[in-house]
Amino acid sequence: MDDGQLRQAMRTLDSYNAQLETLNRQVRLLQSSRDEAVRASRSIEALSDAKPGDEVMIPVGASSFVTVKVTEKKTAVVGIGNKISVEKSFDEAQEYLNDAATQVGEALKNAIAAMQEVQQYTEELAVAVQNEYDARKQNASGSK
User: Fold this and answer.
1) Considering only CA atoms, which of 127, 136, 142 is closest in space to residue 1?
2) pLDDT higher than 70, residue 143
3) What's the CATH code of the domain at 68?
4) Domain limits at 93?
5) Which helix (H) or strand (E) holds 51?
6) Assigned domain for 88 exists
7) I need a labelling partner for 68 at 20 to 30 A (CA). Which of 12, 35, 41, 45 fits?
């Protein structure tokens, strides 16, 4: 490997590391989105199973809950994207949230696979660069 190839390998290694950081952020965001959809679905399920007049603890975020009294109205307002929300029956809301969690889960799987692929390339290139440095160091020591 000549000096130009070594410099190019180092730039590529930096690029791979930047991609890994981006993919890692994406994975965390997708995990959070999936978990949020699952929590919302479970909350709606708890309300759906309750009878009018029952008190139910509902998560509101940040590990905080509020107690609500269940009414006969069995609808939820669900965010469907781009800051738009619609009213749906509990069954429709649960179906929508479960579908959303599944879709986000698939995107999460793909992001993790991409991250693993880039990680593998990064490790292979890092080994090649380290081997080149070691060989150069060895040659420099041997020529003295």
Assistant:
1) 136
2) no
3) 1.10.287.370
4) 3-136
5) none
6) yes
7) 35
